[in-house]
Write a structure and sequence with these properties.
A five-stranded parallel β-sheet has the order 2-1-3-4-5. It starts with 7 loop residues before the first helix and ends with a helix. The chain is about 35% helix and about 20% strand. The chain has a single domain (about 10-135), classed as Response regulator (Rossmann fold). It is built from five helices and five strands, in the order H-E-H-E-H-E-H-E-E-H. By secondary structure, it is α/β, with parallel strands linked by helices.
Length: about 140
């Protein structure tokens, strides 16, 4: 899959929420995605993610797995148990190995992006997730 350049007009209407407790990580993701024309909001905790989702439903959620207040799995579980949010597309972002995910078999995510995040890989995953979501 190749990254398509020059689609900013279509991306501008796509809202992505980034949740990571490390501000530098969030700002990096936000910067890369905004350069591609996406609208990006950032939050720094699981609780802040859930509060944000009470008033705004983004097209996509980039969710860090390991956070101090509530891990990404618990956030994803709560989202998936909410009838209004259950179809929200989630991409996990983590430095953990694959075996870690076996401990959470009931949590769904479209994909897992490994840290450190490569900008081209991020854009590929985001574009694929948004395209699949659009066709659902």
């Amino acid at each position: 899959m190749s990254v398509k350049k020059g689609v900013q007009q279509d991306n501008a209407s796509k809202l992505i929420l980034v949740c990571d407790d490390v501000r530098d990580n969030s700002v990096l993701l936000q910067t890369v995605l905004q350069m591609e024309g996406y609208e990006v909001d950032i939050v720094d905790s699981g609780a802040a993610t859930l509060a944000y989702l009470e008033s705004t439903i983004p097209n996509l959620l980039l969710l860090d797995v390991m956070m101090p207040d509530m891990d990404g799995y618990e956030v994803a579980r709560r989202i998936q148990n909410n009838p209004i949010l259950q179809n929200l597309t989630i991409l996990f972002i983590t430095a953990h190995e694959e075996a870690f995910f076996d401990q959470h078999p009931n949590v769904r995510a479209r994909a897992v992006i490994r840290k450190p995040v490569e900008p081209d890989v991020l854009i590929e995953y985001v574009q694929a997730a948004l395209l699949q979501t659009h066709h659902l």
